[in-house]
Specification:
By secondary structure, this protein is mainly α. It is 76% helix and 4% strand. It is globular, with a radius of gyration of 21 Å.
Length: 311
């Protein structure tokens, strides 16, 4: 095949889609309902946190940032899926593909970094309660949230730039959405620099955040074992949804990283599609449900808000 610059490729073909006949309308309705449900849940929780001054605390402000990221990530995927499900020809323009790559990569990085700063917040609240307000100031909260968003948004520009200027020998992506490593696989020339940068950016962010999370929870566990029953109850009530969110996202992200880096042709196609979509579809639904049900302040204020709307 002749070499071509990705800026000259007008479209990419998504080869993971297959003909589902009239079932595509059922799949479309399921995905549409899921997207509306995700948007509704996250928007309600963002509004609840923003409008209630009693929730203007560090933990809830970090949660608000997390819910905004769920909206960002799901919007980068679901409208695209809805169009592709109804389409008979599964192609996507190069510019839209690169935009989706940017959205997907930044969503994943922001998610993990946000979970990391939330673990730091829990560490200060449980291990250093007397110094919590002095350490977790409004300026510090704003700085942590800004870094959580700005670092991925800027770092992923490099990935997009290299992908946009790669010499490609094809335009077929074997997935239901666009991702950076699929473009790297299409490169004619040695894409070692792009691949290494992608690995460092991905694994550096993920494992760096994971090690930090593990460190903070080791400190929290140490305090819980040596502390009072009240301390343990506080830790369980606020840390359980956070740990569940970390586990859910880590499992989903691991599926995607393994699938993108290794040959998975022996795995059934439907299972490959499910595993590649899990971290982008389940996490935006999992977080608002988990936090909305487990944090009593959000649950009570949300119930009061709904009753006032009903009246």
């Amino acid at each position: 095949m002749s070499m071509m610059n990705s800026s000259q490729v007008s479209y990419f073909t998504l080869a993971a889609y297959f003909d589902t006949g009239n079932l595509k309308y059922l799949y479309f309705m399921i995905v549409l309902f899921l997207y509306i449900f995700i948007v509704g849940l996250n928007v309600v929780l963002i509004v609840v946190i923003c409008l209630n001054r009693s929730l203007h605390e560090p933990m809830y402000l970090f949660l608000c940032s997390l819910f905004v990221n769920e909206l960002y990530g799901s919007t980068g995927l679901f409208p695209f899926l809805l169009v592709q499900i109804l389409s008979d020809i599964h192609t996507v323009s190069a510019s839209v593909c690169l935009l989706q790559i940017y959205c997907v990569h930044t969503y994943g990085a922001v998610e993990y970094l946000n979970l990391a700063i939330m673990s730091y917040d829990r560490y200060l609240a449980i291990c250093c309660p007397l110094h919590y307000n002095a350490r977790m100031t409004f300026n510090k909260i704003a700085t942590l949230i800004a870094v959580t968003w700005l670092y991925p948004l800027l770092a992923c520009i490099v990935i997009i730039y290299w992908n946009a200027h790669s010499q490609l020998c094809g335009n077929t992506i074997y997935k239901v959405y666009c991702d950076g490593h699929s473009i790297v696989k299409l490169a004619c020339s040695d894409a070692q620099v792009t691949n290494i940068y992608g690995l460092i950016a991905s694994f550096g962010t993920i494992f760096g955040a994971f090690i930090f999370i593990m460190f903070t929870y080791m400190k929290i566990l140490n305090v819980c074992f040596s502390g009072s029953k009240q301390t343990r109850q506080k830790a369980v009530s606020t840390c359980t949804p956070h740990l569940a969110s970390i586990f859910n996202f880590s499992v989903g992200a691991s599926f995607e990283l393994i699938q993108s880096r290794f040959n998975m042709k022996s795995v059934p196609s439907m299972l490959r599609i499910f595993l590649s979509l899990y971290w982008l579809t389940c996490q935006p639904l999992f977080n608002p449900v988990m936090y909305g049900l487990n944090l009593s302040k959000i649950r009570v204020i949300g119930r009061n808000l709904m009753s006032n709307v009903g009246d």
